[in-house]
């Protein structure tokens, strides 16, 4: 497991982080724990590659205690979440914005929007671009936490990569998660060097809080311990975000 965030000494704001975990170790559980810390009383947008993974993610988030209302942004045709209590299924950007506005108007302090990458441009980005009409619904608000799962896909797809553009999908905190990190566009077999290559989009790296190196091939720690360790490390750095300014950039050691 690797946790990568900007250095405290960097000029770059610390609102982006990367999480690398081998398949099956529970990236979504970690994301849920991070959400408790940085968006426990706020909004979370989570983007995933497929419909099946969206539905699976919904179940994991619910079991992890994410109890607020949810919107699933994918086609309702043969959607397993249609009719699920506490979930609305929609792709129309105006309807998505209406649902979010209704949560805010009702005083819902915690809500989640799950989307496939294929729906980001037509539903989420379009929702942020909506003009506010007199007496009508406005655009989608800035997200407290934006999570991109299997985020290496956004490096190779111009369309899917739009979710990383802060001007198109604004978010206070961003977490990029993957089990197959890339180094300069190629998969690296060395977990000590692997990371998503575009650090401007995903954030540069610093050591985990513990200073230990965790290789996915030798991941033997109990999943629950790993969840808490990774979540605490990332969340503490993300929360420090916009206040970190004016430090001279220094080289950072990779773990």
Give the beta-strand count: 10
Order of helices and strands: EEHEHEEHEHEHEEEHH
Query: So, CATH architecture of the largest domain?
Result: 3-Layer(aba) Sandwich
Placed side by side, the strands forming the largest sheet appear as 1-2-8-7-3-6-4-5
Count of discrete structural domains: 2
Q: What's the overall average pLDDT, rounded?
A: 76
How much helical structure, as a percent, in the residues? 25-40%
Descriptive labels:
29% helix, Rossmann fold, 2 domains, globular, eight-stranded mixed sheet, 255 residues, alpha/beta
Question: What's this entry about, in short?
Answer:
Helices cover 29% and strands 16% of the residues. With 255 residues, the protein is an alpha/beta fold.
Overview of the molecule:
The chain contains seven helices and ten strands. It is of the alpha/beta class. It has two domains: 107 residues, no CATH class; 133 residues, Rossmann fold (3-Layer(aba) Sandwich). The strands form two sheets. Strands 1-2-8-7-3-6-4-5 form an eight-stranded mixed β-sheet, sandwiched between helices. A hairpin with a 2-residue loop joins strand 9 and strand 10. Helix 1 runs parallel beside helix 7 and helix 3 packs across helix 4. It is globular and about 50 Å long.
């Amino acid at each position: 497991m690797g946790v990568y965030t900007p250095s405290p000494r960097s000029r770059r704001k610390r609102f982006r982080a990367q999480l690398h975990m081998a398949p099956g170790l529970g990236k979504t559980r970690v994301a849920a724990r991070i959400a408790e810390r940085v968006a426990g009383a706020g909004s979370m947008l989570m983007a995933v590659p497929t419909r099946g993974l969206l539905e699976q993610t919904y179940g994991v988030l619910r079991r992890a205690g994410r109890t607020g209302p949810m919107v699933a942004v994918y086609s309702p045709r043969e959607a397993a979440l249609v009719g699920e209590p506490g979930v609305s299924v929609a792709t129309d950007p105006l309807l998505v914005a209406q649902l979010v506005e209704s949560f805010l108007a009702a005083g819902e302090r915690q809500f989640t929007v799950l989307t496939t990458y294929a729906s980001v441009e037509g539903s989420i980005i379009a929702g942020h671009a909506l003009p506010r009409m007199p007496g009508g619904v406005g655009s989608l608000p800035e997200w407290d936490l934006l999570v991109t799962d299997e985020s290496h896909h956004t490096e190779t797809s111009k369309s899917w990569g739009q979710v990383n553009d802060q001007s198109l999908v604004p978010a206070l905190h961003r977490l990029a998660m993957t089990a197959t990190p890339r180094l300069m566009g190629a998969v690296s077999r060395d977990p000590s060097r692997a990371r998503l290559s575009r650090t401007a989009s995903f954030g540069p790296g610093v050591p985990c809080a513990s200073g230990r190196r965790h290789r996915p091939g030798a991941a033997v720690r109990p999943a629950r311990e790993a969840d808490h360790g990774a979540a605490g490390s990332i969340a503490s750095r993300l929360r420090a975000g916009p206040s970190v300014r004016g430090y001279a950039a220094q080289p950072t050691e990779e773990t």
